[in-house]
UniProtKB/TrEMBL annotation:
Keywords: Methyltransferase, RNA-binding, S-adenosyl-L-methionine, Transferase. InterPro entries: MeTrfase_RsmB-F_NOP2_cat, MeTrfase_RsmB-F_NOP2_dom, PUA-like_sf, PUA_sf, RCMT, RsmB/NOL1/NOP2-like_CS, SAM-dependent_MTases_sf. Residues 205-592 form the SAM-dependent MTase RsmB/NOP-type domain. S-adenosyl-L-methionine binds at residues 298-304, 322, 349, 461. PANTHER family: NOP2 YEAST -RELATED NOL1/NOP2/FMU SUN DOMAIN-CONTAINING, TRNA (CYTOSINE(72)-C(5))-METHYLTRANSFERASE NSUN6. The lineage of its organism: Eukaryota, Viridiplantae, Streptophyta, Embryophyta, Tracheophyta. Pfam families: Methyltr_RsmB-F (PF01189). The active site is at residue 512. Belongs to the class I-like SAM-binding methyltransferase superfamily. RsmB/NOP family. This is SAM-dependent MTase RsmB/NOP-type domain-containing protein.
Length: 597
């Protein structure tokens, strides 16, 4: 080759190396980006944005201590990993982020760090010995077999599919948007991502038709937008025609990933639960005690609910409420899978959680406090104990009634019309699988709310913008207005929660977002509005400090955050910190005498 040809070839290879890589840039609404830069500073926010595009380097497992122990689980997982093959290029977890914390001594930090050469380790934080870490690795450089005259065969997946793949999932049929021509079963393909792009009308979306043929040319849809958005390599389980003809199933078996994280699907079911570390810390911050009555206001999918029940040794009463029927069913299934009997589930909108004392009685409403002994309980039945259908029993002075489900066969023989919406719903159910194997489901009881001061502790893990979840490849959907609306919604829920905790009780508020308007601003509102509330210390404390100060917006709106001295009483988990967690926030309130409520 001539020197000029060699130079051109090198330029092409460098361009290909940059294209066939994983180096995403998280796109934000410009006003939201300016707001976060004011809150965190330009450099720190850039680090947060980069961290959000990557999964954590480890999986966090909560052991069901009612059924097993950390040591037993570690032994079983090591055996499973031995059978599945060696784990390569694992990376460590650094626990030195919060060295100033008084709750975590340096000896423990050094001990945790010294264990990082092991792929499976027990958490060394006091009180969290039942938490197990399984290390992953990445990002890895992948050779996609590019040559200037023959680009690799390729599959283009949706952003949500890609985010699941980065967490360890396979590529399923519904997630594929486009594919190279002449792809056959067993072909090796590069997997890239189609991320939403700005539309002329100011919105975001994908301007691509599912089933589009990729030629590997600059004329392909999203050709340049896919630069640096390749998440791995896999083997096709179906031909191109089969991929776009099928409605479900695995389309690409991902055998060479940018991030390698172990899958725990159907592993040690009932003994372990995969959960983010800050979520486990939130349950600990509540500090539930045996025999107490506790409310998880927005409980789905049930991870924190079951964590609370296990911390109480399944002794007491944990009320799990959510406004979604199907999500309440999921909580029941998880409780049954973990063998928990102290969890009572209700369908209830958190904005209507308080039942007035002069309200009408309802047989599906829990109405219990120190002055009222009437209780309506619904326990989720596990497989061995019943037929999977929950019963609701009223216990108390006015109740000797058991509700039984009445089945009417009156129209059993009539023809029924199945709508297209029902067909699509059934297709989604088939696509997503049957759910947890040991769960048979059951009825969901509605509630009209609970009487004031009827709980010892309340957890409000509020619905939020979820801007702390990772990996995330797109964030442009949130605007300043939508973020403010999240904050308003959370304040209304907090107004309900604060009424339900008895004097002397505890209220814990948490979110999975980096937005100060949903975190520190909520704490400021709570302390200024309810003088009987005070921030309480949290144990264990491994998160960072909260944000102090305020933010002034161009439209004149002022958002107040924490005051000096309050920042160390909350926990803020930074996704860019060495803890390598999701973005999360926890505030714990002690409830004093309620003179004015």
């Amino acid at each position: 080759m001539t020197p000029q040809a060699e130079a051109e070839a090198e330029i092409q290879l460098n361009a290909a190396s940059a294209r066939y890589s994983y180096n995403p840039i998280l796109r934000w609404n410009p006003q939201v980006e300016d707001y976060f830069i004011k809150a965190y500073g330009s450099l720190h926010f850039a680090q947060i944005s980069k961290a959000l595009t990557r999964p954590s380097c480890y999986s966090c497992i909560r052991v069901n201590t009612l059924k097993s122990t950390s040591d037993a689980v570690i032994e079983k997982l090591q055996e499973i990993m031995r059978k599945s093959g060696p784990q390569n290029d694992v990376v460590g977890i650094n626990w030195k982020e919060n060295k100033a914390s008084n709750d975590i001594d340096l000896d423990m930090v050094e001990k945790q760090s010294s264990l990082q050469n092991e792929s499976i380790t027990k958490c060394q934080i006091p009180g969290l010995e039942y938490v197990v870490f399984v290390k992953g690795s990445g990002p890895h450089e992948i050779d996609y077999g590019y040559s200037p005259d023959k680009p690799p065969k390729e599959v283009l997946v949706s952003r949500k599919c890609a985010e699941a793949v980065l967490r360890g999932a396979q590529v399923y049929v519904p997630g594929i948007m486009a594919c190279s021509s002449h792809v056959e079963e067993g072909d090796l393909v590069a997997v890239s991502v189609a991320v939403e792009q700005p539309f002329p009308d100011g919105g975001w979306g994908l301007g691509i038709t599912r089933g589009t043929v990729l030629q590997g040319l600059p004329t392909d849809p999203y050709h340049f937008e896919r630069n640096g958005l390749y998440i791995g390599q896999g083997t096709t389980m179906l031909s191109r025609a089969g991929i776009f003809r099928a409605s479900q199933g695995i389309a690409v078996d991902m055998n060479n990933r940018v991030f390698k994280l172990p899958s725990f699907y159907d592993v040690l079911e009932g003994e372990i639960f995969l959960q983010n570390l800050p979520s486990i810390i939130a349950a600990h911050a509540l500090d539930p005690q045996k025999g107490e009555r506790i409310l998880d206001m927005c409980a789905a999918p049930g991870g924190k609910t079951t964590a609370i029940a296990i911390l109480m040794k399944d002794e007491g009463e944990v009320i799990a409420a959510d406004r979604s029927h199907n999500k309440v069913i999921d909580i029941q299934k998880l409780a049954a899978e973990l063998g928990l009997t102290c969890i009572t589930t209700y369908k209830l909108d958190a904005l209507k959680a308080v039942r007035k004392r002069n309200g009408s009685s309802d047989t599906t409403t829990l109405c219990c406090n120190k002055d009222n002994n009437d209780v309506v309980n619904q326990r989720s039945d596990s497989g061995p104990l019943g037929n999977g259908v929950s019963s609701t029993t009223i216990v108390g002075s006015n109740a000797d009634t058991t509700f039984k489900e009445n089945v009417s066969n009156e129209k059993a023989n009539e023809r029924t019309y199945t709508s297209k919406a029902d067909i699509r719903k059934n297709t989604r159910r088939m696509r997503n699988g049957p759910g947890r194997n040991q769960s048979l489901g059951g009825r969901v009881e509605n509630s009209k709310g609970f009487l004031p001061n009827s709980f010892d502790r309340v957890l409000l893990d509020a619905p939020c913008s979820a801007l702390g979840l990772r990996p995330r490849l797109f964030a442009g959907e949130e605007t300043i207005e939508s973020l403010r609306n999240h904050g308003k919604y959370q304040r209304r829920m907090f107004d309900q929660a604060v009424q339900l905790v008895r004097p002397g009780g505890v209220l814990v508020y948490s979110t999975c977002t980096i937005n100060p308007g949903e975190n520190e601003a909520l704490v400021r509102y709570a302390l200024d509005t309810y003088k009987f509330l005070s921030l309480a210390p949290q144990h264990p404390r491994i998160g960072g400090a909260g944000l102090v100060g305020r933010c002034e917006f161009p439209d004149g709106y002022v958002e107040e955050w924490l005051k000096p001295g309050e920042e160390e009483l909350v926990q803020r988990f930074d996704p860019s910190s060495q803890l390598d967690t999701i973005g999360f926030f926890i505030a714990k309130f002690a409830v004093g005498p309620k003179d004015n409520i």
